Amino acid sequence: MLRLLQLELQKLLLNRASKVLIFISFVLPFFIILLSSIRFNVFNYFTLEVGHYGVFNFPIVWHIVTFFASQFKLFFAIVVVSMVGNEYSNKTIKQNLIDGLSKKEFILSKFYTIIFFSALATLLVFIICLLVGLFYSSIDELHLIFRDTEFLFAYFIKLVGFFSLCLFLGMLVKRSAFALAFLFVLFILEWIIFGILAWKINESTATKIQNFFPLKSMYKLIDQPFQRIAISKAPNGQDFLYDFGVHWYEIAIVMAWTALFIFLSYRLLKKRDL
Known about the structure:
By secondary structure, the protein is an all-alpha fold. It has one domain (2-271). It has 14 helices and two strands. The chain has helices at 2-13, 16-27, 31-37, 60-69, 74-89, 92-98, 103-136, 142-145, 150-173, 176-200, 203-210, 214-220, 226-233, 248-271; strands at residues 39-42, 46-49. A two-stranded antiparallel ribbon has the order 1-2. Strand 1 (39-42) and strand 2 (46-49) form a beta hairpin. Helix 4 (60-69) runs parallel beside helix 9 (150-173). It is globular, with a radius of gyration of 21 Å. 34% of the residues are buried.
């Protein structure tokens, strides 16, 4: 495992574009800290500071930060599809196989890299949540501070699933730009199918079916936190109006898609004439 990971990291770090994109991927989440400290002067009447309105308090900070941090995943997605695209364009995939790397090991090296960077990104978000939460929250009880940390696990699974999809699309079309275009087409296709189902059956059933689609199931792992923020400001007894939790079956769906994407990537490589 370490040998395959080291081999892939060496390829990425020798590529200037990949290094820049990886750097951007890990720097962007820190803008959440910057956002929390920004002050808005509203027509010289009053000053609005986001962090002082309780949105970065424990335990809600785990939900909010993971949700916004997950929006930056597209930059590393470019790295993932480039990992495959460069292998084909530079003929290194053929050379690796000639040098003794099996097709299974080739796919695993990509997957291990995805897990490595996803874990690194999750650790980074964990640190950001702690820094922002400890600065703005008055809560100092450990069981409250670390409540809702399941959003970190959901964030990790979400990244691994999304990047595995990107790996499969990269293997499918062999070109980075086309793989990203296919990602956009898949997004549109999911909504078209949802629209047809809502028209033919009903919206409620269509939504339940849509939640099994690849991109939608990944999005559902961490629901948008805006309603939760509104609920936290509402009177007691309103917190059951909206289910914002992380559910085991949503994680299971994304893990199933992840396994399928890795398997299909391997099958494509195994059957393809290099």
